Amino acid sequence: MPLLLPILLALACAPLAYVAGRWRPGAAAWMGALGALAALGALVYEWTQETTRLVFPWAPSWGLSLEFTRDGLSGLYASMALTIGALVVLYSRAYMPHHLAEEQRPPGDEVRFQGLILAFMAAMVLLVTVDDLLLLFVALDLTTIISYLLIGFDREDPESRAAALLSLVLTGATSVVFFAGAMTLGLQYGTFSLPLVFERAAQSPASTGALVCLAVGALGKSAQVPFHFWLPRAMAAPTPVSSYLHSAAMVAAGVFLLQRLYPLFAPATDVRHGLLVIGFVSMGMGSLMALVADPFKRVLAYSTIAQYGYALVLVALGSEGAPLYVAAHAPCKAALFLTAGAVTQVTGKKKLSEVGGLRHALPVLAGASAIAAAGLSALPLTVGFFKDEVFFHALAKEGPAFMAAGVVGAGLTLAYTLRLWWGLFGGPRPSAPAAPAAPPLLVAPVVVLAASILLGGVLPGLLVTPARAAAETMRGEPSTLELAYHLDARAENLLAVGAWGLGALLFATRNAWTPALSRVLNAASHVGAERGYRLLLLQLDRLSTWLHEKEVRDLRDRVASVLVPTGLLGLTVLGVTPLRDRFTVGTVGPADVTLVMALAFASAAALATLRAKGHLRLVLLISCVGFSLAMVFAFAAAPDVALTSVLVETIFTLLFAGLLALLPRERLKLAQDEAQNPRGRDRLAGAVAGASAFLLSWSALSHLHVDRVGAQTVRLAKAAHSPNVVAAVLTDFRGLDTVGEMTVVVAALLGVTSLLSLNLSRKGKKQ
Amino acid sequence: MILIASLVVGLLFAVGVRMVLERELVRVACGTVLITNSSVLLILAGSFPERGEALNVHDGGPVTDPVLQSLALTAIVIGFAVSALLLTLVHRTQRAHGSLRTDRLVEAELKRVHAVEKEEGH
Amino acid sequence: MISFVPPLSRLLLWPSLIIALALWLKGGASVGGGFPAGALAGLAVLLQYVTAGRDQTRRFVAVRYAAPLAGVGLLLVVGTAFLPVLAGYAPMSLFPRPDQQELGVGGLHLHTALIFEGGLMLIVFGLVVTVIDRFALRTDSDAEEEAGP
To answer: Where are the transmembrane segments (chain B) (predicted)?
Structure first.
């Protein structure tokens, strides 16, 4: 049970925060952060326990169970999600009131926002802790849905609504692809439990199609090319969202999936080569876009794409540093996002070209974010240094071309990070009146993150154990990962120095190449994946409109288009099923004469309804059919059915007559006059459906099993203390069915009540 | 007997479908009632070959399959509830759109959709 | 011609309700049960609506609160089905159990199936009466509306 404690605590955060928010809006964030820290404590406690797996059987006959694990990956990612979640929630306490005031929304909405952030945190913890493919998909979709609500939090703003929808469609669609892959694997190996899947995959490798599906799901989540474009758009969200979802949580989920499922990918070199290419492309494209983007949140978004490209490259190479890379990147990126939000709140500006020289007004923030920026660009004494060290270490094994690409990528990272920090804080002191100081709560999370970045950089030994544990989980073999500073001329150090040099050079000469680069990228954006996506959506929209108009033009076609194919299908099934003695005619004895007569009466009444002109006559004929059937039931020795049928039929006839009294007379007459022109295809549809029903029921009635359940019920009725066997079946043997049926009746009752009272209230308004 | 019962089931179903495909809502409702009737008949027809004595139940004699009877009973009650809902729907539709004909309803709906789209466009 | 119908139908109300009750109580032993009982009771009320009108019929408490009665019925049904779960039985366990002696006087036997059937009866009754009541309400107000503008 201790295994579930962090999840349960994380799940409890959002409701607790909500309750606290009802008491006092400001308390929600503190409550939530407290809950997150408690969950973190439970996570640490859980590591001192013995159990590492927990399995709840769910549907054992289908091999379905709910499985949770405690391993290196889950520990690393869960603590990352919880720590940054707590900081972001506290930050939002300072950020949201201002934001809501700008959006002209009630301050109480802050609680809703924090609740959503905490719910997202819980979904993330769930995602990293589960250990079977189905739950993985469920948790993945949970994050997608909550992120939709978070990105679209400014619901009055069409831009943010569109961004939320875009991210929902893209990450939702790709996660459906992931589901397809998971199902394929589940069918291939007969289980969804990950350890079992891995075990069986060791004998027979997973199919390439399934792996590609899984990878697509992960790429969509991690905003890699060609699904990258939702991420910059999602920057329309409030900054805490960007900072959390797009650094530590949602985007990390994709790479996490690949790491969790790495044992499946390990033997599939083709798929891994594809991932490698995608990683390098995302890296290059994201870095270049980050070099020219002007809104500073967009710079960070493109940088995220690029950084997760690095992580993807590491996974594709099977490097043991992949989990460490994500973990080291998260605090740096989160801190920079929080900085961007603080700058926007203090100055009201969102673009690099509009701000500058803020180091005088915001010295603490400038210092803390400088550390974060150094971490992002992998300077020594920060934890970021080690993310590039493992990166270069992995590339150095692959050859010079890889090393060159790595140096360029890292150089670009340094260049855009410098550009960002210098654009915000560097430059001459602005001539405008000094910006007001930022609230302490807005700066404190950045400082905490910066402190942790420095701590990790100075004492890398702290990181070795979790990084090794995660790498072991990922690769399934003991890890020899080492983190230390080496002052010698090994390849990693040379590559790092090369990257710094390149970055500094690029930054120094930025005025020379920025305009040209931005022109080229502008031109390139016209042929990108985003345009393809737009075109696809447009065409789909058109198709759906066309279909809708076509379908809705005549409701009868809609009905016929369901009934006729179903009828044809039934006939086909009968045609192809090889059943010996498919149809038996049956015998008609003297005892059956009354039954046949009643049936004939029902048929005659039914046929007569087709010719009935007046509505009243129609209704009477329908009730005639019903009463003759009641007669049939009576002759068939089913007195309960016959009794109920007579009563219900009486009520129904009276109700129908009542309805006719309710409808305006002239309209009824009009409808009557116009109705009498049946189309030929309606007759055809009726004939096909009827023939199919006839043949199917004939076939069914010809194959009644000799040994009936009914005989059993007759025997058991005594034990059920009910001489009336029908009553015993209804109340006892099939009692649960009756309960379900009664809920249907009550639902119909509610429908009737609401439909008619709705009518009343509308009329009341008119008067 | 089997043939006759299934013929009647098929006939009721065919007439029901034919009426559901009418333009006018009252007839559509009648059609669904007929379809319900045909399914109840089908359920109970399973017991026709070895049914009990009508109106004369005594111990040890042949019994009509009680499971089928209770299924038919259930079907009747649910059919009634759904038909009642349908009748109120017919009434409500007529109040809302002022017509009993499905093609008119579609026209009205399309008109409203277009109006909403126009509004959103502006 | 008209004159003897309303008194006669008023006379019919109580006998039909009693027959409905009998159908319910005897359902376990012979023809009857919750469905026909509810339908018959509904029919009795429907007759009152037709002859006496809505206002006269709504004097009866059971008619005014027909929809809540159906809710009570659903509670009874669900309660009979799932309360045994709390005591560790399978859902839909009825009492007395098959191996237990049942208590009873004459044709009437005490059995939780009776409660279940009573729930069914209330639900069907509630549905019938509510639909009738709504239709009757609409008829009245429509008549007013057509007379009004």
So the answer is: 6-21, 28-48, 68-90
CB contact under 8 A, C28 and A662: no
DSSP string, A78-132: HHHHHHHHHHHHHHHHHHHHHHHHHTT--TTHHHHHHHHHHHHHHHHHHHHHB-B
ipTM above 0.85, yes or no: yes
Q: How many residues does chain C have?
A: 149
Q: How many CA atoms lie within 13 A of A98 on its CB side?
A: 20
The whole-number pLDDT of residue C149 equals 34
Contact criterion met (CB < 8 Å) for B88 and C127: no
Sorted by where each begins, the domain ranges of chain A are: 1-53+68-267, 270-508, 590-661, 713-767
Who among A719, A727, A757 is closest to C98 (CB)?
A719
* Higher pLDDT among residues A218 and A359, named by residue: A218
Note down the domain range covering C119.
Answer: 2-147
Angle between helices A440-458 and A384-396 (to 10 degrees): 40
How many CB atoms are located within 10 Å of the residue A765 CB?
6
Chain B (63-82) residues lying within 8 Å, Cβ to Cβ, of chain A: 63-70, 72-74, 76-78, 80-82
Closest CB from B2, B29, B78 relative to A584: B2
Both tokens of A45, joined, read 């406690």
> What is B2-49+64-121's CATH topology?
Helix Hairpins (1.10.287)
**Sign of the dihedral defined by the CA atoms of residues A255, A256, A259, A261, in that order:** negative
Angstrom distance (rounded) from CA B52 to CA A637 = 5
Between A512 and C76, residue with greater pLDDT: C76
Q: pLDDT tier at A678 (50, 70, 90 boundaries)?
A: low
Give yes or no for a contact between A67 and A132, defined as CB atoms under 8 angstroms apart.
yes
Rounded to 5°, the CA angle A725-A726-A732 comes to 80
Counting one residue from chain A and one from chain C, the pairs whose CB atoms sit within 8 A come to: 135
**Domain residue spans of chain B:** 2-49+64-121
B110–A contact, CB cutoff 8 A: yes
Pick from C34, C85, C127, B122: nearest CA to A640: C34
CB contact under 8 A, C92 and A651: no
Q: Give the closest of C33, C35, C131 to B84, CB-based.
A: C131
- Fill in the amino acid letter for A332: C
> What distance in Å separates the CA atoms of residue A666 and residue A62, rounded to the nearest whole number?
60
Q: What is the dihedral of CA A291, A292, A296, A300, to 10 degrees?
A: -40
Number of folded domains that form chain C: 1
Distance of CA A318 to the CA centre of its chain: 27
The predicted-structure confidence for B96-115, as pLDDT tens digits, reads as follows: 777 777 777 777 777 777 78
> Has residue A502 got a pLDDT over 50?
yes
**End-to-end distance of chain B based on CA atoms, in angstroms?**
67
A737 touches chain C (CB under 8 A): no
| Cα gap A412→A303, rounded to integer Å | 10
Give the CA radius of gyration of chain B: 21
Percent of the residues in chain B that have a pLDDT greater than 70, as a whole number: 89
State whether residue A54 sits within 8 Å of chain C by CB: no
- Between helices B66-97 and A709-716, what is the axis angle to 10°? 110
Among partner residues C124, C134, C135, which is closest to B77 by beta-carbon distance? Answer: C124
**Chains sharing 3 or more CB pairs under 8 A with chain C:** A, B
Please report, for residues A158, A626, C37, C40, C107, the alpha-carbon distance to residue C44 in angstroms, rounded to integers and kept in the order given: 59, 20, 11, 6, 25
In A, minimum Cα distance to B25 occurs at A671
Give the residue from C17, C19, C35, C129 with the most A CB atoms within 10 Å of its CB, the best one to mutate: C35
CA dist., res. B103 & res. B109, Å (int)? 10
Nearest by CB to C67, which of A719, A732, A749?
A749
Six-digit token string for C144: 């007013």
Q: Per-residue DSSP letters for A159-182? A: HHHHHHHHHHHHHHHHHHHHHHHH
